Amino acid sequence: MVGDYEEDVNGSTMPIKHYSFNGQIIATRRGSSPSDVLSYLHTDHLSSNSVSTNITGTQTASRRYYAYGTEQPGGTGTLPTDRTFTGQKQDGTGLIYLNARYYDPSLGTFLSPDTLVPDAGVVFDYNRFMYGSGNPVKYSDPSGHFSEDQLREWYGDDWRSLFTNEWIRLLLDQQGSQLLAAQLGDLVITGNSGSELTQSILVLDASGQPTLWNTATKTGTSLASVGGTSPDMLALYRIVGGESGAADTRYGYLMGGTKFLPATNGAGGGSFSMVQLAQYSPRAAGLDVFTTVAGDWFMGRGGSGHYIHNYSQFQGFSMDLASWVSAIFTGAGAYDTAVNVVVAARTGASIGARGPIVAAGSLVVTVYQASKYRQVYQMYSCSAFGPNYCP
Fold this sequence. Notes:
This protein is mainly beta. It has 2 domains: 3-134, no CATH class; 178-391, no CATH class. 11% of the residues lie in helices and 31% in strands. It is built from 5 helices and 22 strands. It has helices at residues 148-155, 165-171, 223-227, 321-329, 333-347, and strands at 3-9, 12-21, 24-30, 38-43, 49-53, 59-62, 89-90, 96-97, 102-104, 109-110, 187-191, 198-204, 210-214, 219-222, 233-239, 248-249, 271-276, 290-294, 306-318, 357-360, 363-366, 370-381. The strands form 5 sheets. It has a 7-stranded antiparallel β-sheet. Strands 1-2-3-4-5-6 form a 6-stranded antiparallel β-sheet, with no helix packed on it. It has a 4-stranded antiparallel β-sheet with strand order 7-8-9-10, with no helix packed on it. A hairpin with a 2-residue loop joins strand 2 (12-21) and strand 3 (24-30). The radius of gyration is 23 Å and the shape is globular. The protein starts with a strand and ends in a 10-residue tail after the last strand.
């Protein structure tokens, strides 16, 4: 249950109680007594509330949306909620609040730029006002940040009610810590006394929801579906060499090590050593400090299954000489410098001069810069085409 608050639906303001399951609002009750009207909400493939029914299953309202979220004509009744397109809150101005930014469905664009360029290798991602990568029929657009704000977007304002204190400790950064808490690509080990331990990698499912990818069964389980449990053992592990969780240069793995867990992008066979992050491992008694993940952890098992693909999400620039030298030795120095110029031009970023510089007209670029990236891991459907990731 999400809780009570007043909501203005077509000019009528009254307390509305929201009920949720697995992070999705599924019903509302208008008014303050148990006898008030209970309505069930039904969504489309983008989690947009499109139909409401009463307790007998009779449809009471319907709404259809154009690709970018404006309402199509022909709807019936009044949906009993102001959470409309993609399940997000729409205010009286018609704008939709996506937790981090406001979105205008009539323009099909955000009103403020994204703080990140999600993938520097995708030209559309340099338009930081763009919604859903220009393909809103397939994608919705959560912020992409693994933070408390992102958890609210995935699961609602009352997201903490879905997780026990143990899971919250694993998920959220501790103030003043030099290590980041759980992020995509980390290993989570769970288990109960007398049962076999489960190794799972934190990834996104095909719709962009946090998922635990079981490295043995090659299947995904919604994070929210297990977040309310309190297993006897619960610990977080990260690849050796990347303990801090800090972003890395795009091709850092070519140096013979890596700060992120390789998948389709940079897999090299063998196994990968993982180290336990004690402060984010609430129930680690009896668990080894080090463990390994098989080199083929990301591969699926054919048929209609899935595999895990990873891609680089741009995070910003590093100004230290060590990062730039590392980029040069991986053959990425020229690439990173070029990306710096493009991103700076697109974002209006201030590029200060430190060390040797290259000047081009009014643009000054320091050669000590190296672009920094973080990895995103997501489930992709197995296909008969392309690399055989699902043997």
